[in-house]
């Protein structure tokens, strides 16, 4: 299979950048098709096996790592910055695969690793905020992660929705409304799942029928898995909702992300 060939390629031709790219893309394909175990395996190999090879073979190593890795990469060599960003993307996607397998502690470490490789990449900040929210960590830490993501991508509505959800839970009404209004400007162009999260978090009198239609469409299109939706902090108010649970139960988790 392509999966097995990619794994063999990583072991036997470790120094070739195109092989990393191939395996990364195959890992993403498995992720999008809901094949989380295979995705986890190949993304881990792409991230870890290449981590120790490509930096030294393409770019000379820095004299010291007294500074954080990401700062060294971005300050000392443009080629390192691009390479480190690819690692950051691989680690972030690995975290998503692990989350879908309920490997929450592993996912947390993968997002942390992604953040170490590229401090200007918004996704690991956002995912660290979500993970910390799932684990019911202190809201100050969660807010800090979301704000870091927003500083990098200020027009990304899903970050504003998740931050608004934390403010809502903390009874910080003014900040909650501010971030909902920012999200409202951009949410129409988002996929159905993000629109559903917006409806639940930001529309205080949201149409339940509209929300359920959006969620069902999102799950049928494999935008997320049923397990992901069930554990999403932004949808915590639906956890006991019969219609929501019926949608989850009606879909085969083996065929949905």
Structure notes:
This protein has helices spanning 2-12, 17-32, 36-51, 54-58, 69-76, 78-100, 104-117, 122-134, 139-152, 157-169, 173-186, 192-202, 208-220, 226-231, 242-250. It has 15 helices and no strands. With 257 residues, the protein is an all-alpha fold. It is globular. The chain starts with a helix and ends in a 7-residue tail after the last helix. Helix content is 72%, strand content 0%.
What is shown here, in short?
With 257 residues, the protein is mainly α. The chain has helices spanning 2-12, 17-32, 36-51, 54-58, 69-76, 78-100, 104-117, 122-134, 139-152, 157-169, 173-186, 192-202, 208-220, 226-231, 242-250.
Topology readout:
Elements: H1 2-12, H2 17-32, H3 36-51, H4 54-58, H5 69-76, H6 78-100, H7 104-117, H8 122-134, H9 139-152, H10 157-169, H11 173-186, H12 192-202, H13 208-220, H14 226-231, H15 242-250
Helix pairs in contact: 1-2, 1-3, 2-3, 2-6, 3-6, 5-6, 6-7, 7-8, 8-9, 9-10, 10-11, 10-12, 12-13, 13-15
Rg calc: 19 Å
Strand proportion, as a percent range, falls in: under 5%
Instruction: Extract low-pLDDT stretches.
Output: 53-77, 253-257
Number of strands: 0
Main structural class: mainly alpha
Shape: globular
Mean pLDDT over the full residue set = 82
Q: Percentage of helical residues? A: over 70%
